Amino acid sequence: MISKEEIQNLSALARVKVSDEEIEMLQKDISNILDYIGQLSAEKGVSASAPLSASSLRNVMRDDTPRADNDLLAGKRESLLQALPKREGDYNVVRKIIQKDE
User: Fold this and answer.
1) Domain locations in the chain?
2) Cross-strand partners of 92
3) Integer distance in angstroms from the first to the last C-alpha of the chain?
């Protein structure tokens, strides 16, 4: 089982205050999660401690190729840009949703 000190360390890193009751609940919950991960990695033969290597990762983005002439959006860039309510050059202007707390 994960120790009380480890929970307190995690809460300090996350900058979250936890009560003694919450620490006990978190000990049980996190231990159950770690046990389950251990079971999964044992079944699948995957090491939970082994980091992903760069060779095991791949880019999932599509190639950046021009649209074909028979594509529905081919040649309609200007009409799409003109349909935007507010724009600056080739960019759509939207309202600011993230504000800095002061």
Assistant:
1) 4-44
2) 87
3) 42
